[in-house]
Amino acid sequence: MDPRKFVLVAISVALLLGLARSFEYRAEDLASEEKLWDLYERWRSHHTVSRSLTEKQTRFNVFKENVKHIHKVNQKDKPYKLKLNIFADMTNHEFVKHFGGSKVSHYRMLHGPRSKDNHGCDGGMMEQAFQFIEQVGGLTTETNYPYEAKDESCNSAKLNAAAVQIDGYEMVPENDENALMKAAANQPIAIAIDAGGKDLQFYSEGVFTGDCGTELNHGVALVGYGSTLDGTKYWIVKNSWGTEWGEQGFIRMQRGVDAEEGICGIAMDACYPVKSTSTNKKKQGSLAAGKDEL
Questions:
Q1: For residue 28, what are the contacts with CB-CB under 8 A and spacing of at least 6?
Q2: Domain topology for 3-99+187-272
Q3: For residue 25, with 0-12 CB atoms within 10 Å meaning exposed, 13-18 middle and 19 or more buried, which class applies?
Q4: Any bridge partners for residue 191, and if so which?
Q5: Helices first, then strands: H and E counts in the chain
Q6: What are the boundaries of the signal sequence (predicted)?
Q7: pLDDT, tens digit, 9 for 90 and up, residues 172-182
Q8: For the chain, what are the domain ranges?
Q9: DSSP 9-72
Q10: Number of C-alpha atoms within 13 angstroms, CB side, residue 128?
Q11: Which residues pair with 272 in a beta bridge?
Q12: Cα-flanking dihedrals φ and ψ of residue 156, to 5°?
């Protein structure tokens, strides 16, 4: 089997398993205040969310408005759906404040020297992260040193177990989705997007075509591209908000929009590491050229 199709099939199975574990609700759960309270308690139990008595009413009010928004969007004929994920009792402002920021998600990137462009768990510039990796001689693996989303002193022993070295990085020409697609055919790309849209907060599945701006505030990884059976073009993006969000931690975002900067500014700021040795010249069997419906 073509390795690319194998990966796509594997992700499709993972998505089905993820959907089976997701939190579901029915329209009648929104019929009254009492039923909404019951829904909120079921949601808290499902996601093991603990709230104090003093904040419970406030959180319920936020949850109620979010449920109504999710239900309204899902009733429309959109190519994507939303769900009551773990962020459902957070306002969009709170969500962006806590989960926005141009995050480069590995410890070594977070614990590099602080500067105006590197802010630890508050995020940092992707280009500076690549510069730091080059300077210190490499990056360890996620398995060896998992990301935990908190600021603390780093584990030097794990940090210095370099598994990957780079010789620099290349910038993708900005506001050029064709150039971005060409780059993504060979390796994952570090990109920045505007993650402030409310629909992004609750994204569940499908090709995202929702409203979002171009105020870049969140770093993610572009890992490929494809098209649905009806011809809708999309990017495949890996996020850092956990596997309960989106399609097992991934999102498919519309590709080839009218705006040159791409949806949510996806084509505005993109770069990737380079390795000058011959082992880096071999193309990866990635998702990049996948054309199958997920």
A1: 35
A2: Cathepsin B; Chain A (3.90.70)
A3: middle
A4: 220, 270
A5: 9, 8
A6: 1-22
A7: 999 999 999 99
A8: 3-99+187-272, 101-166
A9: HHHHHHHHHHHHHS----GGGGSSHHHHHHHHHHHHHHHT----HHHHHHHHHHHHHHHHHHHH
A10: 19
A11: 170
A12: -60, -35
Q: For residue 28, what are its two tokens?
A: 């009648």
Task: Say if CB 293 and CB 5 are below 8 A apart.
Answer: no
Closest residue by Cα to residue 192 from 108, 113, 100, 130: 100
Of the candidates 140, 229, 144, 221, which has an alpha carbon nearest to the alpha carbon of residue 183? 221
**Which pLDDT belongs to residue 145?**
77
Tokens of 3: 């390795």
CA atoms of 270 and 178, how far apart (whole Å)? 13
Among 45, 53, 59, 46, smallest CA distance to 90 is for 59
Look at residue 291 and tell me whether its pLDDT is greater than 60: no
pTM (two decimals) = 0.77
Locate 249 and state its tokens. 């931690």
Higher pLDDT pick, 6 / 152: 152
Partners of residue 226 on adjacent β-strands: 234
